[in-house]
Amino acid sequence: MNYQTAQGWLRTEEREFLFAMAKKATTILNIGVEYGASIVCLAEGNPNAQIAAIDVNLSSNLTAYPNVAYLEHDSTTLDYTNSTYDLIFIDGDHSYVGVYKDIEAVTPALAIGGMIIFHDCGDFADPTILEHRVCPGVNQAVSDLLGENSSYIELDRVGTMRIFIRQE
Ligand SMILES: C[S@@+](CC[C@H](N)C(=O)[O-])C[C@H]1O[C@@H](n2cnc3c(N)ncnc32)[C@H](O)[C@@H]1O
């Protein structure tokens, strides 16, 4: 499997970013698997990282990697209290409430200095992103919970992704 061509909803620059960021991580959480493109990017980016891959409805023909643990579960109701991740990628429920719940559930498990990435945040100034599911609820929930949150610094945007670092 090749991370640049694996079936999925990721743009070229998003794939390259996930591939590169995985190299800096040892524990990774990916919410939203579908065809598995983001998993391929992360697993090929760092075959040594431990990757948890969560989807409420897992496909039966996903690529198996020794360092990826697939789990079929609602991400908003999982118990993350015994886990710590230094990279979290959120691409699951795209509703406002779903993203809000994901942020509430997973951010306590993000390491200080760790990175959290949200896909499909949308940039209404760029009409090409309409092809990639502009989801206003995603962007709004991210802004409401992390936009003015002093514990997080917004690092960058890559394609439809918003990227934050936990500071404290
Ligand atoms: C846009 S797709 C993920 C695409 C994938 N990251 C990729 O790179 O191609 C969204 C996925 O989120 C899953 N999903 C939706 N709500 C969820 C929830 N509450 N918990 C876990 N997965 C959820 C859906 O089943 C779907 O497979």
Give a written overview of the molecule.
The chain is an alpha/beta fold and 168 residues long. The chain has a single domain (12-166), classed as Rossmann fold, CATH 3.40.50.150. The chain is 26% helix and 26% strand. It is built from 4 helices and 7 strands, in the order H-E-H-E-E-E-H-E-H-E-E. The protein has helices spanning 12-22, 37-45, 96-106, 136-147; strands at residues 27-31, 50-55, 68-72, 85-90, 110-118, 152-158, 161-166. A 7-stranded mixed sheet has the order 3-2-1-4-5-7-6, with helices on both faces. Strand 4, helix 3 and strand 5 (110-118) form a beta-alpha-beta unit. Helix 1 (12-22) runs parallel beside helix 2 and helix 3 (96-106) packs parallel to helix 4. The longest helix is centred in the C-terminal third of the chain and has 12 residues, at 136-147. The termini are far apart. The model has no long low-confidence stretch (mean pLDDT 93).
